Amino acid sequence: MGDSSSATFRDRLLSREEVIAWFDSRRRSLGITAGPALVWLVLLLAAPLTFMVSVSFVNVNESYQIVWQPTLANYEALFAGGGPLFQRAFVQSLVLSYAIAAVTTILCLVLAFPLAYLLARKGGRTFKVVIFLVLLPFFTMYLVRAYSWYLMFGPSGVINATLLKFGIVNEPLAMFSYGVTAIIVGLTHAYFPYMLLSLYASLDGLDYSLVEASRDLGASRTETLRDVILPLTLPGIISGSLFVFVPSLGAFVTPRFLGQGKVLMIGQLIKDRIGSLYAVGYGSAASMFIVVSIVIAFAVAFRYVSIEDLGGI
Amino acid sequence: MSGNPSDSPRTKSHQSRRAFLAATGAAGLTAAAGCIGGGGSTPTINILTWEEYANEDIKSRIEEEVGVTLEITKSTSSSNMFSSWNAGQYQQYDIAIPNNNYVPKMMDTEKDGEPMIAPVDEEAVSNFDAMYDVFQGFADSQFTANGNRYGVPIRFGWYGYSYDSRSVPDHEDSYKALFDENYVDADLSGKIVMYDNHFKAMSAAALYLGHGDAFEGSRVTLSQDQIDEVKQTLIDQKPNLQGYIAADPTYIKSLKQGNFVIGQSGRNEIVEMWSNDNDWPSMATPKEGSLAWFESAVVSSASENKTKSWEVINEYISAKNGATLAKTGFSPSVNPNTQEQLTDEQNEMYGAVDPSRLEQMIPFKAVENEDAWITAWEEVKSA
Amino acid sequence: MDHETIERLIRLGLYGTAGALLVFLWVPLVVMMVLSFAVNSSTLFPFEGLTLAHYGATFADSGLIGAMFTSMAIATISATIATVLGVLASMALARYEFPYRELYRTLGILPMVIPGVIFGIAMLIYFRTLLGIVPGFWTVVLTHSVYGLPFVLLIVTSRMYTFDESLEEAARDLGADPIETFVDVTFPVLAPAIGAGFLFAWIRSFEDFIRAFFVRGTANVLTTSMFSMIKYGTAPKMNAISTFIVFVVAVLLAIAMNAGDVASYVADTDGE
Fold first, then answer.
1. Which domain holds residue B124?
2. What is the average pLDDT across C161-176?
3. Among residues A1, B368, C37, C253, which one has the fewest Cβ atoms lying within 10 Å of its Cβ?
4. ipTM metric
5. Is B51 in the same domain as B97?
6. The domain C53-267 belongs to what CATH superfamily?
7. What is the separation of C-alpha A152 from the centre of its chain, rounded to a whole number of angstroms?
8. Which member of B17, B91, B253 has the closest CB to residue C233?
9. Mean pLDDT of C113-117
10. Do A137 and C111 touch (CB under 8 A)?
């Protein structure tokens, strides 16, 4: 058998027809196309995430060896501490992260809509220049963008130094120091392009004759916006919001530098526990809250848009 | 105790060579074999430690003296050194140099039934006898188990707070300056910084609250009630803070820019500013007690070059290298002979600091119930 | 107010917001670029003059430049893996019906959606605790190859959906065999999308900090070096290397925009 099969194999290597015939089998070509990525995703995505879920339900001993006995200790540790529940670090941090992510999303939406609308209606040279100016920060490293705001804010940062220099204020303004405001500005700057591009994609496909028809039929501008433009661009709004909200929720670099240690978002809390203590049980359990809330966000989004609408997927 | 960033071309040339190898796709083989920069007969000693230890003068002198190649990875916290070794990196490194309080923790950590770190090769560490008696004593009392010594002190310093004497009037040194708004005759609100570290910041608050006796045993023992009190004190202090600062260079830069005028700091930061001709910062040693540290070297039990590793450590406390290290990090060496290598001015600042001053201080020690500390600290940070 | 005035006010409002936005996007970057040439590199005032010294110091820093080459190597290897896997998977998704197809697609998009902190930690404990692999160069490559996959997948599938399959049929009717059809018809149509996918995966890997931070072991990549520079307040070099990167990206982007419709590719792949 060995001889004959190696002969066939050599034939296949040599004969073009054989190769074509071999590939022509639907099952084989499906295996060849879908298979490699499947193996990769199972080994390097599904397996690590599943392992993380299981780690959140077991104890890790002093030598960081896993003790395979089911326990809820990691989840209890998230809510450890005295005082009312809402004062526990994890809860406060989670609530704060949701709030910051929500404000950032709304800011991005409000700011991006006019620009996206203009871009969708304009073409030519202006369009190219503007899109270049928007895309360039988008392609620039996230770390660089966060850092550029690190220079702007702070008691002696560029904003305060400029205000002082021109005598507009006598003391550095607290609102331009590091803190929640700085974090929201930094996150808005970082994720704004996602919102813009999502909105642009859906506004670009918008049939403007509908807008004109609505106006012709006597609808006011607000009515047209509410009844025609918004419903038609809803997929863009939802996908843009998701792609701003989710990374803002788990942000680490921006709050790390723009919070000056006074603000603790959930990404920092988890990272600190792992980075300095290698508390993998705690970190995994805390991560589950983020993962679950993201799953819920997407599930809600899919009630209104199909997966195909998400940024042209 | 990380000092100013100093570059180390030696490490870096290794990195770029590694990058080049990686770029050509060969890194996989070398990395898998674990012998980057090795080859030939010169063993490579991997060290996980603070930035200043990578000083190029020290590094090249040690490499020549001991006949090894040093590969130094910088770290910014002892807890990180400990947890990464414990999580398996003890197999990647030969030497780590954490703060003294982490040496007993490493001694207690077992890997495959053996302690994670190896006993001192006394013959290789010939400079041990030159060390101040007080550090020899610490090594005996803190780092010795079953007749074996496990750590070698290298350099030392202490924490208190420092301030801009141009805007903060003189006062009796006390943590009240950081926590009590009425203690110092100046408006400090929004102009205070604290360490972004649970042990340092919470210890300062505990000492302010008069819990000094919690620091007396072999471990720091705060009760849950005391921890809650500390937590509340720090939360109350938070609106007056400019921020929490994690790295010494940021402290120096920010103090120079006038972002804050008073803050918890190590002595080495202020000494560094003095030696750069800034005479206005003042260092305070609070009457409630200062936290003193000494960094101590350990060798991994998985090291294949234990004797060479101890020889490397011995070089770090030689008169000459110890003096360079003191100069680089603005912190004194445990070896008094380093004074001969330094000028009078240098000696005054960081060469000839009498370690008997440490006797009135509280040495860094492990914390009882660290989880409760960390939970409380996170609540402070998220409040 | 009459109709004209309202119309004009609205237009003014639209253009005003849009203009303000561009200012918002650009001011911090421009300030950073100016500071990279300033003697006093951390803030604009007091202004102490201009210098090129920071650039000299930056490019003489062999550690930083070495880390940059490491990042480039990681980005190249991982984007290549992501592109090969992503193109094959896109073909499966666009051409075949198979069980659990939507699950497969979701799995392929997931790496883009999971926050970096969580993905990084999951990979770290998987490699270190479960598999006992010592983290280093190759764990970053593996992690980034998964992270880059969705970007290739999204761009290439959307191109395939708009691909006119009758072209392939025509080629076959004219006597081309499947291999010739792929090489002469399918691939040329897909090539720009594949190129864009590769580029995206490459950039995502190159700019990633948090995933690399967890799985890099003792390897230094550009972002982790930059992170410590910010942490230690090494502003001069940070300004210079950042400005350099903005400049390189600007040149590449200008070239790419003249060559193809970058905006529509980007619109296909938003998300972190």
1. 9-150+293-360
2. 78
3. A1
4. 0.86
5. yes
6. MetI-like (1.10.3720.10)
7. 24
8. B253
9. 90
10. no
Is B195 in the same domain as B252?
Answer: yes
Total count of domains within chain B: 2
The secondary structure of chain B in percent helix, strand, coil, rounded to multiples of 5, reads 50, 20, 35
Q: What gap in Å lies between CA B168 and CA B258, rounded to an integer?
A: 12
Q: Do B201 and B130 share a structural domain?
A: no
Residues B91 and B23 in one domain: yes
Which of A66, A74, A173, A260 should be substituted to probe chain B, the one whose Cβ sees the most B Cβ atoms within 10 Å?
Answer: A260
Q: Do C270 and A193 touch (CB under 8 A)?
A: yes
Report whether B315 contacts B177 (CB < 8 A): no
Residue-range domains of chain A with CATH: 2-55 (no CATH), 74-312 (1.10.3720.10)
Between A125 and C247, name the one with better pLDDT: C247
Residues of B in contact with A82 (CB under 8 A): 224, 228
Which of the residues in chain A have pLDDT under 50? 1-4, 12, 311-313
Option in C69, C219, C231 nearest B246 (CB): C231
Gap between the Cα atoms of C3 and C114, Å rounded = 49
Candidates C4, B168, B274; CA nearest to B178 is B168
B31 → closest Cβ in C65, C77, C137: C137
Nearest to B298 by CA among B131, B138, B118: B118
In this complex, do B18 and C219 lie within 8 Å of one another by their Cβ atoms?
A: yes
Whether A77 sits inside 8 A of B241 (CB atoms) is: no
Q: What digits encode the pLDDT tens for the residues A57-71? A: 998 877 677 888 898
Cβ contact (<8 Å) for A33 and C95? yes
User: DSSP secondary structure string, A276-292?
Assistant: HH--HHHHHHHHHHHHH
Distance from CA of B70 to the nearest CA of C (A): 14
Using CB atoms, pick whichever of A62, A177, A261 lies closest to residue B245. Answer: A261
Measured in angstroms, the CA of C270 and the nearest CA of chain A are apart by: 5
Interface test with C, best of B12, B76, B253 (most C CBs within 10 A): B12
Same-domain status, B285 and B297: no
Which tokens hold the place of B373?
């500390």
